[in-house]
């Protein structure tokens, strides 16, 4: 941030998102020592045969639950949902979770506090309807509570959806904010001609590495096209 100004014919925004952090007493203290924001084979092997929890009501949370449950059938996987299970998750995932013998679903429930001596050992839950508190042993909590786009600094000329993700391509046309009449936007072009957006920051994108790679490849094609137009 040196204040320098750079001129360019095409600009690509690949700013990503900021994953929401768990707001519970002790969450920061146990980051990397029981609190995780991804669920890979590394973590499942670390906590083999130990009870774990997943927080979230979307597909990422549902997929993590089934991954953890199937990797080690002897463990109990607790799924904590702030409201009810279903509205934000694919039906097939809901059915698999409901049918899994080693998955316990806690609806209308949030984590109030986390406890342990150097590493997470237990979590205190609160029922949002009754206010009742419950403490359960838990070796790890996997957090999937959404993300916020890193787009708050962008100018107003770059249109965004209600959640702050950048509109591109056909979404820009549908919004009525495309300013040019001589051509339509490229698939990744924003409402500011010549500015592209790719990856997690783009409205409607799937928050997965493979999809971001695909966006990056398409961005190269779009950039070449715009450069040839603007010669």
Task: Report on the architecture of this protein.
This protein has two domains: 11-17 and 148-229, FAD/NAD(P)-binding domain (3-Layer(bba) Sandwich), CATH 3.50.50.60; 21-145, FAD/NAD(P)-binding domain. The two termini are 30 Å apart. It has 231 residues and is of the alpha/beta class. A hairpin with a 5-residue loop joins strand 8 and strand 9. 24% of the residues lie in helices and 22% in strands. The strands form four sheets. A five-stranded parallel beta sheet has the order 3-10-4-5-6, covered by helices on one side. It has a three-stranded antiparallel beta sheet with strand order 7-8-9, with no helix packed on it. It has helices spanning 41-46, 59-71, 91-99, 169-175, 209-229, and strands at 11-13, 17-19, 35-36, 52-55, 77-80, 103-106, 109-116, 120-127, 133-137, 140-143, 147-149, 195-197.
Tell me the distance between the termini: 30 Å
What is the H level of CATH, i.e. the homologous superfamily of the largest domain? FAD/NAD(P)-binding domain
Overall SS class: alpha/beta
Strand order of the largest sheet: 3-10-4-5-6
CATH topology category name of the largest domain = FAD/NAD(P)-binding domain
Q: How many domains, in number, for the residues?
A: 2
Count of beta strands: 12
Instruction: Give the C-level CATH assignment of the largest domain.
Output: Alpha Beta
> Using only CA atoms, what is the Rg?
22 Å
Mean pLDDT: 94
What order do the SSEs take from the amino end to the carboxyl end, as H and E?
EEEHEHEHEEEEEEHEH
Q: Write down the overall geometry.
A: elongated
Low-pLDDT stretches: none
State the helical fraction.
10-25%
How large a portion of the residues is in β-strands, by DSSP E? 15-25%
Number of helices: 5
Please give the largest β-sheet.
5 strands, parallel
CATH second-level architecture of the largest domain: 3-Layer(bba) Sandwich
